[in-house]
Amino acid sequence: MSERHEHDRGPHRVGQVKEVTSLANPIVKDIKALAQKKTRDETKTFMAEGLKLVIDALELGWAIRTLVYAKAAKGKPQVEQVAAKTFARGGLVLEVSEKVMSAITRRDNPQMVVGVFEQRYTPLKDLRPDAGETYVALDRVRDPGNLGTIIRTADAAGASGVILVGDTTDPFSLETVRATMGSVFAMPVTRASVADFLRWKKEAGVKLVATHLAGAVDYRTIDYKGRPVVLLMGNEQAGIPDELAHAADALARIPQAGRADSLNLAIATGIMLFEARRHLLSLDGSE
Ligand code: SAM
Fold it and tell me: What residues are paired with 239 via a beta bridge?
């Protein structure tokens, strides 16, 4: 990525907004390159679209590298505020034409505001689940839309984190971040190999509930109230491999009718999450 802007050092100093109209601008090229996983991996950054998302991310303490806003958003108080915060945290602020915004977001009707943030993963060793906590573990999830929807649903159900087991799709791709609707900033995401995940499972003393089409246990009959629970969900094509299934404390199945072979992964995760946390959720939002 391009070098950072100079820090805003004094209370009266504000950074300089860069006006950009050319697609050939090197900073614009760097941001566009974030569409590729290779660039995201190298820079350890990603892009999030929308003013609300950027405000939430800044509030939650995510490090912003670059704020981009469309010329039409200039002067809006909330945009001015996020620009000031970006400068204060040493980031760069760009005011761009609609053409540039469309190119960055690859959309005809782009959002007015885009932020480039540093990626953040919670290390597995830092996950120390307590009673009443629920985690989702995803075995080799492939589809960015599924992953984003699961992160959003885990957030809505009050889960404590999402663990990506094995080789999975990138939680910081544009498609995944879009599907999270902002929950990527609220839900801790962890990566683990199968071996590390199984070791952690033992040490952390969690109850591992694996979902399986051949599961013998009706998911509604499981006790989710004792130990902290990890819901393990299988790959979209292959389901859960034997190595993981054997380590589970229960193999749960969601009964189905009709002709469908299985449920979509994100839907199955949603059903499991809300059942596992049913005793903890109420309409007034209290847990
Ligand atoms: N062909 C795969 C198989 O045989 O397992 C189908 C995988 S399914 C699309 C993806 C994941 O969603 C499964 O591994 C499981 O975790 C979950 N899932 C889908 N339907 C389910 C059901 N009825 N009961 C339990 N889990 C289910």
Answer: 235
Q: Residue 182 C-alpha to ligand 1 middle, in angstroms?
A: 26
Radius of gyration (C-alpha) of the chain in whole angstroms: 21
233 Cβ inside 6 Å of ligand 1: yes
**Biggest alpha carbon distance in the chain?**
66
What span, in angstroms and rounded, lies between the C-alpha atoms of 55 and 111?
14
- What CATH number labels 124-280? 3.40.1280.10
Residue spans of the domains in the chain: they are 3-118, 124-280
Q: Which of 162, 151, 138, 149 is nearest to 238 (CA)?
A: 138
Q: Is the pLDDT of residue 119 over 90?
A: yes
pTM score, two decimals?
A: 0.93
pLDDT value at residue 12? 37
- The CA–CA distances, whole Å, from 21 to 51, 67, 94, 102, 135 equal 20, 15, 10, 12, 45
Phi and psi at 172, nearest 5°, equal -105, 15
**Nearest CA residue ID for atom 2, ligand 1:** 239
Are the CB atoms for 46 and 177 separated by under 8 Å?
Answer: yes
Residue 4 has what pLDDT? Answer: 42
The candidate with the shortest Cα–Cα distance to 209, out of 272, 118, 133, 284, is 272
The CATH superfamily label for domain 3-118 reads Ribosomal protein L30/S12 (3.30.1330.30)
| Pocket lining: 228 vs ligand 1, CB cutoff 6 Å | no
Residues 27-74 pLDDT 10s? 999 999 999 999 999 999 999 999 999 999 999 999 999 999 999 999
Q: Tell me what pLDDT residue 15 has.
A: 78
